[in-house]
Amino acid sequence: MQTNSQPSKFENIASWVVPIAAIAAVIAWFIIAPEGALGKLDAIGYAVCHRIDARSFQIGDRQLPLCARCTGEFYAAGLALLFQLIVSGKNSKLPSRGVMAVLFAFFVAFGVDGSNSYLYLLKQTSGGLENIPNLYIPNQTLRLFTGSGMGIALAAMLYPVINQTLWRELDDRPALGWKQLGILTVAIIVINLLVLTDSPIVLYPIAYLSALGTLGLLVIVFGLLWIIIMKQDNTFESPRQLWLAFASGLTLALLLILSIDLFRLQLTGTWNGFPGLTG
């Protein structure tokens, strides 16, 4: 466990440079991303998702920022992290073996459905694979549910790692128990069923939750990386002390998103899905 020490010269400089870099990254994102609020969210999804129109939910004739699978994964991960923050606090222990088995089943379902769906796409877009059988015909419902299951599993594994990295004093209890997993799973199922109604009243919030969930996960990962590099792990006592790590994570996350966006835009010439992939 680290002990508190006086900030180094580098840390003092970073406390000034990082916020400026974060503001510059946000401004660059607003300039480069497509127009409109949903356009800014599209730029986030564009960095991590194929954004194939036929595999995405639609608000009228406009697709959501992420495909159905990624929508489920990232909105569920974001909500699951928020849920654990509220009910688990600084609990830092990984789930029990039984809960881990359920989470592993979510992971397997995600992998099986994703592989089957990808094979189906290859058969539709390239020749010579017609004789390879699919397990089943992929559909939006399975993409959404397996994606959201993966989101729950991802958040359940990430949350205790966050606590183990941040706090000086930890609560050595599982961050996700059976009761919490049950409540979370039921809530996600209900939300998924609402998403499948295709109501704009549901899809607009989900568009924001999925894109911001994507950005949030990247910010968390890069923020933790910053903390580890700065050798500040297990030194924090209050969320207020995390502002510099948050600003660093936001800067690095936006730089990654912008780099991928610009590369993909140069490669494809469109903010939509990859050309030629319409299955």
Itemize the secondary structure elements and their pairings.
Elements: H1 9-32, H2 37-46, E1 58-59, E2 62-63, H3 68-88, E3 91-93, H4 97-125, H5 140-166, E4 171-174, H6 178-195, H7 200-229, H8 243-268
Parallel strand pairs: 3-4
Antiparallel strand pairs: 1-2
Helix content: 55-70%
Identify the overall geometry.
globular
Helix and strand pattern: HHEEHEHHEHHH
Radius of gyration: 20 Å
SS elements, strand count: 4
Gap between N and C termini: 51 Å
Domain count: 1
The mean pLDDT is 90
Number of helices: 8
Strand count, sense and barrel status of the largest sheet are: 2 strands, antiparallel
Strand arrangement across the biggest beta sheet = 1-2
Query: In percent terms, what proportion of residues is strand?
Result: under 5%
In terms of structural class, how would the helical and strand content be classed? mainly alpha
- Low-pLDDT segments, ≥5 res: none
Descriptive notes:
The chain is mostly helical and 279 residues long. The chain has one domain. The protein contains eight helices and four strands; from the N terminus they run ααββαβααβααα. It has helices at 9-32, 37-46, 68-88, 97-125, 140-166, 178-195, 200-229, 243-268, and strands at residues 58-59, 62-63, 91-93, 171-174. The strands form two sheets. Strands 1-2 form a two-stranded antiparallel sheet. The chain has a two-stranded parallel sheet with strand order 3-4. Helix 1 packs parallel to helix 8, helix 3 (68-88) runs parallel beside helix 5 (140-166) and helix 3 packs antiparallel against helix 6 (178-195). It is globular and about 60 Å long. The model has no long low-confidence stretch (mean pLDDT 90).
